[in-house]
Amino acid sequence: MTNSEILFITEWIRDYLYAHGFSLFWANLINAVVVGAVGLVVIRILDRITRSVIVQLFKAFSNKTKTSFDDYLIESNFPRFVAHLSPLAVLWYFIPIGLYDYPELAQIGAKLASIYFVVLCVLIVRSVLRTIKIYLNAGYEQFKDKPLESYLQVLMMFTWGAGIFFIVNLITGFSVESLASLGAASAMILLIFKDTILGFVASIQVSINDMVRIGDWITFSKYGADGNVIEINLASVRVQNFDNTFTTIPTYSLISDSFQNWRGMQESAGRRIKRSLLIKQNSVRFLTPEDVEAFKKIALIKPYIEHREKDIAKFNAQNEVDKALLINGRNQTNLGVFRKYADAYLHENPAINKDLFLMVRHLAPTELGLPIEIYAFSNDKRWENYEHIQADIFDHLIASVSYFGLELYEAPSGGDLKELKT
User: Does a structural domain hold residue 126?
Assistant: First the structure.
């Protein structure tokens, strides 16, 4: 039906009403209402039909293709938004006809239709961007730990910004160039989107410098975060802590503050064990010949003690050392033998990675005793297994200390003080 034919029908309805006693005002009004109602019904029916047809065709097309991109387009409602374009075109066609006698209302209706078109275009762009994000996350391993959500939000900000400029242009008649050139508007935008701009810059730096990925275990003491990163977006980073609580960290804090990322440990060949035993210093002593013979019964250090005993005896004999006092010449100590035992025990432990650094060392003496530090790396990096490995090692070493005549430091408790009193 052509434009002239529709106008002929509307004029006939108006003339028919006017001929049957209606005033010209009411004849025009009823005519506009009838045409508008018919037009809305037609548009509604067309919208349903078009949406159903386009969605079904899109689904049939996606089922025949190998790529999953079109499947994600359906999930993001891309076909539904596209289907609304056809009824919108019909609406544009009907507005000047239905409101022929009301040019001002026709102009308002045309502007509203144009605004709806702009919003629809933004929604279509949003569905495409979401589809791209889902497709990259699901189909490409290298994108799964990237902050794609941040880039999506930035692009959506620009899209909505452009849409708002066009809508303002439609309503007020100001050009987009004039709006963009207004200093006050620019200042307002900077003020409103300050955090967003900071987050955008931070997310780019985080991505380029590969500081944080989704799935990384991070510790951020300032915000009480200790867990895995599950989301990185424009404004914040969401961390699921190990107690199953969630912590939200501003994205720009990742480049302005210090935090700990455990990814290096997770990607390495082992997880570090670094813990000390506090030895009472007055329990450290030289070994007597009887002590040496007793320690030879300990299988792990028997070869070391025998070899060491020969070297010491040879040195003392060559230098005619008077061994009436143990302090003279070279001697072994119970602490030195214990350190060697701990080192041998770690080398024999299958849970310790021998290819990484392994050491048993002294630290500087303190008022709490002499720290003997175990520095090694476990093969298993999983937290629960790592703690079991560490606990087994120190269970054994703590129980072994007494065999070497050494004592561990422990602050006196109520029972100790009671014994001293009695």
Answer: yes
The whole domain housing 41 covers 3-144
Q: 226: which strand partners?
A: 219
Q: Are residues 140 and 46 in the same domain?
A: yes
Give the chain's domain count: 3
Same domain, 259 and 285: no
CB atoms within 10 A of CB 165: 18
| R_g of the chain, CA atoms, integer Å | 40
Tokens of 202: 């931070």
CA distances for 74 relative to 27, 54, 55, 127, 403, angstroms: 46, 11, 8, 9, 72
The CA distance from 238 to 246, in Å, is 7
With CA atoms as reference, report the closest residue to 337 among 371, 297, 292, 375.
292
Please name which of 40, 26, 83, 27 lies closest in space to residue 58, comparing C-alpha atoms. Answer: 83
- Sole residue written with tokens 């070297």: 311
> Which amino acid type is present at position 242?
F
**Between vectors from CA 84 to CA 82 and to CA 89, what angle results, nearest 5°?**
110
Do the Cβ atoms of 292 and 309 come closer than 8 Å?
yes
Each residue of 411-421: b (16+ CB within 10 Å) or e? eeeeeeeeeee
One digit per residue, the tens of pLDDT, for the chain of length 422 reads 445 555 555 655 655 555 656 665 565 556 666 666 766 777 777 778 877 787 777 777 777 777 777 777 777 778 888 887 877 777 777 766 666 556 666 677 778 788 888 888 888 888 888 888 888 877 677 776 666 776 777 777 778 778 887 887 777 766 555 544 555 555 566 656 666 677 777 777 777 677 888 888 999 989 999 999 998 877 788 999 988 999 999 888 888 888 999 888 878 889 999 999 999 999 999 999 999 999 999 999 999 999 999 999 999 899 888 888 888 989 999 999 999 999 999 999 999 999 999 999 999 999 999 999 999 999 998 889 999 999 999 999 999 999 999 999 987 766 666 666 65
